[in-house]
Amino acid sequence: MAASRDDLLIAIRSAFLKKSTQQKFSLLTLVFISIFTILLSSLDFKIIRIIKVGINEVVYRSSFIVSIPENFLKNTYIEIVEYSTFYNKYKKSNDELKLLRSGNVENEIIQNENKELKELINDYITSSDKLLAKIIVDHNSPFLKSIIINKGSKNGIKIGTNIYDQSYLVGRVIEVNYKTSRVLLLSDLNSNVPATIAPQNIQAIITGTGDNHGQIKYIKDGLSDKFSEESIVYTSGTGAIFKSGIPIGTLKLFEKDKKTGFNVEFYSDFSQLKYVFAEITLRKDIQNSNNSENQEANPIEAKIKILEDEKEIIEDSNIKFKEENDLLKIKINELNDKIFNLNLNLSNQNQKINQFNLDREELEYLRLNLIYSHKCQTRKLFSTGYKVGTPEYKECILNKGKKINE
Amino acid sequence: MSSLRSKGIFLRIYSWLPVIILFISVLNEFDLNYLNLDYFSFNFPFILIFYFTLKDFKNLDYIFVFIVGLFNDTVVGLPLGISSLSYILICISTSYFRNITIRPSPIKDWFYFLFIVSLINSINYSILTLFFSFNLVLMSYLVNTFFTFLFYIVFVSIFKFYLKSLND
Description:
The complex is a heterodimer.
Chain A: H1 2-17, H2 27-42, H3 46-66, H4 68-84, H5 86-122, E1 124-137, E2 146-149, E3 162-165, E4 168-176, E5 181-185, E6 192-198, E7 202-208, E8 213-217, E9 232-235, E10 247-256, E11 259-266, E12 275-285, H6 289-292, H7 299-376, H8 391-398
Antiparallel strand pairs in A: 1-2, 1-12, 2-5, 3-4, 3-12, 4-5, 6-7, 6-9, 7-8, 8-11, 9-10, 10-11
Helix pairs in contact in A: 7-8
Chain B: H1 2-15, H2 17-28, H3 44-54, H4 62-76, H5 82-100, H6 106-130, H7 138-167
Helix pairs in contact in B: 2-3, 2-4, 3-5, 3-7, 4-5, 5-6, 6-7
């Protein structure tokens, strides 16, 4: 019994420590190095990150070169299959193209409107640039669904950069090296995308299943009854991990244990990807560059500051208007006084003119009276004239001695 | 003279073939996963490392096995060191098995391989889920283990042929 235990111990010790003639390290040393490496890789030190990036660059490039023959065979097989179904696909694509063209104009209008509204809400403009990237490694591991693209930090790729196939969402960048990046596909189990299901407008989280479809998670009970196979899934933009409004896929009905469920059928076939687009987003504040330093990242605070500034400007202009108003009032009063005085003068002058006219008429009457009084005066013998002082007499004088009857 | 030299180079490359194939298989992820068969996958490096370390193949240095592990982690996207630990554990198990085996038998090797692959995949799964919070499908691991076990006997016959040709 003791001897067999000794044999076992010797065998184990030998397995761990014995080095063959060719071996440079004992297995125990390598086990310790492996554990040490695991511990280091779990820590986020700068030096480890740099070493990791270096290793990644070398390994990804080597993997790409090594995969060339296999990829060639794979692509040839795919091309042969595509050629055999080429005509049918062409006809189907043509019909789809006609439909899409008609819908495209409408989409462009909506996109522009959406962009304007977003600018109004956020106080910043986002300009995005889609960068074409080639997939250099796409080994379909059963455990992790990821791809390697040939664009890295040199090209402006960051962790979280959204990756597209045409305009469909494929995944996001989870690891960035200098010239390469790793993209976590939507089908990976670790992928979670906040999404909206239209037209029902239901918010949900789409998680990967490890297969070529997604799963709907975290929705209220009963809401799934509203789903139909026409429902489409697109990103909601919640959490700011993904941009909002990017199409993901459609709902697909399935039955399991006599229960109806829904999966998300992705628009993009992740196993057929050759090139993808990486969206590099640049954010630009609307405010002047001088003010931007003082501006907080919070848009509400920025808005309050703008409103306060506006209020100050309005108050200043109000005070100015009041002062101007007072000045104008004083001027109006002065002018009114002037007008009153002028009116007074005018009435005086009018009076004077009237008096002058009266005097002139009187003078004229007196002059005519001296000349024609003998013609208009009444006489005792001949009663043809008028009595002095009567209106008829005055009229006769003014008519230069002509009597009314004549 | 030159034909002898070229023959020598060819022989040298031929003797290093398992190491070259190991590196290529890791960089290329040679596992027929692109066939998109449900759950189908197998681990070729496990088979190769197990067989050649069990046979104490002189050119398969443990340090290569360790480096191959690092490469595999980089390609697959696992935390660095996980695959290296798995591969080194295979080497330890084969070394131990070699020490305790008096009369080798292919069937015994095969079932020992199943035990070792199951154990290592369990360790792998536990580390990834417990320490690195990875979401993994257990069924994929089980199927991977099963197919790796099945394919072992197929590849072993090819490897035997290779070793025989090398000795000749």
